[in-house]
Design goal:
The complex is a heterodimer of chains A (540) and B (220). Chain A is mainly alpha-helical. Chain A has helices at 2-28, 43-49, 54-82, 87-101, 104-115, 120-126, 141-169, 174-182, 187-201, 204-216, 219-224, 232-240, 247-284, 290-323, 340-378, 389-392, 395-409, 415-440, 443-451, 456-467, 469-485, 488-493, 501-509, 514-539. Chain B has seven helices and nine strands; from the N terminus they run βββαβββαααβαβαβα. In chain B, helix 2 (95-102) packs across helix 3 and helix 2 (95-102) packs parallel to helix 4 (139-152). The chains are: A mainly alpha (540), B alpha/beta (220).
Chain lengths: 540, 220
């Protein structure tokens, strides 16, 4: 059993990720026998490097990932440091779980409707400013990147807050805080100066995950990113799905460049962190700086409030568009609101929601079963670090390789491969959540049950599982949320034949029916919310 | 040989030897008190006997009960009744469900199982509390329920690991005499570990102090 559990985890996570990387590396150097390329060459790489706009694409991806990660991290540290003392932060703490569960894509669609050149914000001020056409400044790569970055910050800050808060809870802070206060430091400054370094040191993996997503994610780049040239992941996708199959070699080479760009981003992050450490050291040496801390806290509060307002507005505009009759620029509101769209499109939306839920629930349940089997049979609670590999490599890089390998071994696209692909991203999160509570459980209950004459299986089912009901339900809900939000794994492993709310939202947001896109964004956000609510109810 | 027999028992945690080549026989109906300071390895010894040593601690030696060799068996086949520092009533079950959980599988009929649990509750003075959530019981009631649960599993020996430490002093004497009286009335070998002189006196049996000698020897 022990071997089965270890093998399963390897087979479901490490093997496909490594295989996917090999599957992208080989064609990148000209080796793709299935299409008749057997001579290794550097031609694909040189062709890609000569593509117009490649440098700009890479630079934009790098910049948006680095800046959004840095801002989200600074904000998350400020919020975590102030959690016990300020109201806005307490609000955010309560909202953290639902905020994490909202798919990036729902917010992206809402943000597009809100902030686009002809978006709602412009419409609201168009009349007073006597604007007849959308403002010119909003047409440009710079503005697109700004919107994309804002969405990333909005989505990643709550995730990082949750990670930091979890880490902070595991550190006994009372003595350090009492000591610092007796030396004249306020609560927030004491946390920032004494505890924040430890939080960050223990959250490296989460930070890298955020950074890699920021640089390499495809779905937000498609919905919000610039188009001429597009961001690097979009460029990779264009080459990979090029009608000329030979261009797939170039796609692989571009994916390799995306990995290199991500590595560069990581190096830049490390250098930045080292520089920040120097500045931090200087701040440590100045003694108490209550005024500065107050200002930092105020900026943090303001940013948090802005982000929450931004979030609320994205959902208001989604709701408005899904109910809108004719809505011409520059009218601030639609002329009529009606339920036409919802009534006409309910069957479609339900069908896509059904497919999405089926994939998500199956994936989350399989992930939970595999993780529990691993924990129960190996007796270990420290997870192997390779489990995070799928989260620290840009998705498109190894998923493309996996698709190539599916081609080679003759595995057709479909629901099964989609679930396997989703497991790559759901398993790490499930494992992380379950392993912690598994390690925290009191082993004496199980020992007692065994002494009362029950075997390991009964003890597992009747004692261990029920005692962990709350964290297990949460892990399921998080697994479902992760799966619901996945776009690229569905696209690649489903071969375009499996349609979920996420794939539908990207297609529609790129120039389909705005009303339907809005409705899809709403239903997409509802699924994780329902999963979380159900988990909370179950935990009671 | 009858009774609970420990032969050549050695327990190691990390690089440290907690117990070295220890021998002990507890006859049926006898209460033996094992005394030692906190952290000496008393609980580890009981966990070794019960077969529930946590990872990181290793035990070796022979364990027999009425001529049956136990040390290679999984915990569920050893039939050791455990009473630990805390009552450890399963929090997701009612008091009655905790007791029913302990009744061996040869009692098949649901009603009979339920009736046995009710009777066991009455026997420890907890009539009518079966449907309660264990968290709503007082400290003394929890200890009584834990004792009832332990005995329902039809154990062949009892292992008491300082089962009175979590009780305050008034209650402590009362529960102690109740538990010890019930334990000795079963006629089973009983092994009590404690660091409390009062517990040892109340048990009124043989006192063994395996941790006293090597320490003195080391000093001299």
């Amino acid at each position: 059993m022990k071997l089965v559990a270890r093998g399963l985890l390897l087979a479901l996570v490490l093997v496909p990720t490594l295989a996917g990387l090999v599957g992208v590396l080989a064609p990148a150097v000209g080796y793709l026998p299935v299409l008749g390329f057997t001579e290794p060459s550097l031609a694909p790489l040189t062709r890609v490097l000569a593509l117009p706009g490649l440098g700009q694409a890479a630079a934009m991806s790098l910049a948006v990932g680095l800046v959004s990660t840095t801002l989200a991290l600074l904000l998350a540290v400020a919020i975590t440091a102030g959690l016990q003392s300020r109201r806005v932060s307490r609000w955010l703490e309560r909202l953290a779980a639902p905020l994490i569960a909202v798919p990036h894509l729902s917010i992206a669609v809402g943000a597009a409707f809100l902030l686009a050149p002809s978006g709602w914000l412009v419409r609201l001020v168009a009349d007073p400013l006597d604007m007849q056409t959308p403002p010119a400044f909003a047409y440009g790569a710079g503005y697109d990147l700004l919107v994309l970055g804002a969405v990333l910050v909005l989505k990643e800050t709550p995730f990082l807050v949750a990670v930091l808060v979890a880490v902070a809870r595991s550190i006994d802070e009372r003595r350090s805080l009492a000591l610092a206060r007796s030396l004249g430091y306020g609560d927030i400054e004491a946390r920032l100066k004494l505890l924040a370094p430890a939080w960050l040191a223990r959250s490296k993996l989460a930070i890298v995950t955020v950074l890699v997503y920021g640089i390499g994610n495809l779905e937000l780049a498609l919905v919000l990113g610039p188009t001429a040239p597009p961001l690097l992941p979009v460029l990779v996708l264009d080459l990979m799905t090029h009608p000329d199959l030979a261009r797939r070699l170039d796609g692989a080479a571009a994916a390799l460049l995306l990995i290199a760009t991500t590595a560069l981003g990581y190096a830049a992050y490390r250098i930045g962190a080292a520089l920040a450490g120097l500045a931090f050291g200087a701040w440590l040496a100045t003694g108490p700086t209550p005024t500065l801390t107050r200002w930092l806290a105020r900026i943090g509060d303001l940013a948090t409030t802005l982000l929450l307002a931004f979030l609320a507005l994205t959902f208001v505009v989604l709701a408005l568009w899904s109910l809108a009759g004719p809505w011409r620029f520059p009218d601030p509101f639609p002329a009529v609101l009606h339920l036409d769209l919802w009534q006409r499109r309910v069957p479609d939306l339900l069908a896509h929601a059904g497919t999405t839920a089926l994939i998500a629930v199956t994936t989350a349940l399989i992930a939970l079963a595999v993780v529990l089997l691993w924990l129960e049979t190996t007796g270990r609670t420290t997870l192997p670090s390779w489990l995070w590999l799928p989260l620290v490599v840009p998705q498109i890089a190894f998923l493309f390789g996996l698709q190539m390998l599916m081609l080679v071994i003759g595995l057709g696209p479909g629901l099964g491969p989609v679930i396997l692909a989703h497991l790559l991203f759901v398993l790490p999160y499930t494992a992380l959540l379950v392993a912690d509570s598994w390690a925290d459980q009191d082993p004496r209950y199980a020992a007692m049950a065994r002494s009362l004459g029950h075997g390991p299986w009964t003890t597992f089912c009747k004692i261990k599982l029920p005692l962990l009901k709350a964290p297990l339900a949460l892990a399921l809900a998080v697994g479902i949320s992760v799966s619901v939000a996945l776009y690229l794994p569905t696209l690649f492993a489903g071969g375009g034949r499996v349609t979920t709310l996420a794939t539908e939202a990207v297609t529609l947001a790129q120039g389909g029916d705005r009303r339907l896109a809005a409705a899809t964004g709403i239903v997409l956000a509802l699924l994780p919310a329902v999963a979380l609510l159900a988990a909370r109810r179950l935990a009671r | 040989m009858t009774g609970l027999v420990l032969a050549d028992v050695t327990i190691r945690a990390g690089g440290q030897t907690l117990l070295d080549a220890f021998d002990l026989t507890v006859a049926p109906g006898e209460i033996v008190t094992l005394m030692g300071p906190s952290g000496a390895g008393k609980s580890s010894l009981l966990a070794w006997i019960a077969g529930t040593l946590p990872p990181g601690i290793e035990g070796s030696g022979r364990l027999g009960l009425d001529g049956r060799r136990l040390d290679q068996l999984p915990p569920e086949q050893r039939r050791m009744g455990l009473l630990l520092q805390e009552p450890l009533l399963f929090p997701h079950m009612t008091v009655a469900a905790n007791l029913v959980f302990a009744i061996p599988r040869h009692v098949k009929d649901r009603k009979v199982r339920r009736a046995k649990a009710e009777a066991a509750l009455a026997e420890v003075g907890l009539e009518g509390l079966g449907s309660r959530d264990p968290r709503t019981l007082s400290g003394g009631q929890k200890s009584r329920a834990a004792l009832a649960r332990c005995l329902l599993a039809e154990p062949e020996a009892l292992l008491l690991d300082e089962p009175f430490v979590s009780l305050d002093s008034d209650l402590r004497a009362e529960i102690r005499s109740f538990v010890l009286a019930r334990a000795s009335s079963t006629g089973l070998p009983v092994l009590l570990v404690t660091h409390d002189q009062g517990d040892a006196e109340a048990a009124a049996g043989r006192i063994v102090e395996p941790w006293a000698r090597p320490r003195e020897a080391a000093r001299s």
